[in-house]
Amino acid sequence: MKKFFHMLITLMMVGVLVGCGTQTSGSQAGTGDQPSGDSSSGEQSAETTLAKIKSAGKVTVGFANEKPYAYKDENGKLTGEAVEIARTILNKMGVKEMEPVLVEFGALIPGLKAKRFDMITAGMYITPDRCKSVAFAEPEYSIGEALAVKKGNPLNLKSYEDIVNNKEAKVAVMAGAAEEGYLKKMGAAEDQIVIVPDQPAAIKALQSDRVHAITMTGPSLQAVLDSANDDTLERVMDFDQPVIDGKGVRGYGATAFRQEDTALREAFNAELKKLKESGELLNIIKPFGFTEQELPGDMTAEKLCKPE
């Protein structure tokens, strides 16, 4: 009987050991299948994300519903300047499907860091503060101020300084827009600034000669001119960007990734560079109101991430 109990206890101990061994093995395998996270180098983690989306042929992208950068059209399709750039680049990388996640703008970076999505593309400007939280690809567009005038530019207005220096010049600005503050800081008189309620009112003011110019950000102005379809109006294509309090007002937008996703960001940047060099980038962003003036030039994410 004793011998029987000894054998039973021995068998039970072997079973426990085997069970523990299987559980430990499973835990180790599970860890190896996950992104490497904080325990490994950033590059290893990035390679895991890049490999994952290439293998699946699908990427999850976070975006805020904001035209012209990222939005759903009337058919429910995700589109926009930032989206179409990302879609083109990802296709060239072999990732054909983009799975959208719509969130508020303020939830994009937290959601990216929490791995709710693989990347975010929503017209987000590169700033030193944001660079502390995410890794930006190279800028894909820039946004500055713009000016529209009557054809031929009768007063030769090519900057806010030109408006300030010509006391006859009047410019229409939408109520609450930043341009009013810019003009005043640069010395424009109160009677030079004509406040209008909306974009159509600005166009009408220019068409009726109430003002000599209208101003707003580049893509917004281009969209307004395209809608007006009036060949007596034109955009000032050699407009000089204002400098306010010693700083330029031009912003640069880009797609953002988790900081550890180095390989994914570098692969994205490599394809973006090709789009810039071939001229294809401009063709992609033109339907959304962007022109040559909105191209990023030689600005880099590294420079934009440096504290001022």
Instruction: List how many beta strands DSSP finds.
Output: 16
Largest sheet: 5 strands, mixed
Order of helices and strands: HHEEEHEHEHEEEHEHEHEHEEEEEHHH
Strand content: 15-25%
The tally of helices reads 12
CATH superfamily of the largest domain: Periplasmic binding protein-like II
Uncertain stretches of 5 or more adjacent residues:
1-46
Q: Which CATH first-tier class of the largest domain would you pick? A: Alpha Beta
- Please compute the radius of gyration using only Cα atoms: 27 Å
CATH fold-level topology of the largest domain: D-Maltodextrin-Binding Protein, domain 2
CATH architecture of the largest domain: 3-Layer(aba) Sandwich
Average residue pLDDT: 85
Biggest sheet strand line-up: 10-9-11-8-12
Helix and strand content put the structural class at alpha/beta
First CA to last CA: what distance?
85 Å
Principal-axes geometry comes out as elongated
Q: How much helix is in the residues?
A: 40-55%
How many domains, in number, for the residues? Answer: 2
Oligomerization? single chain
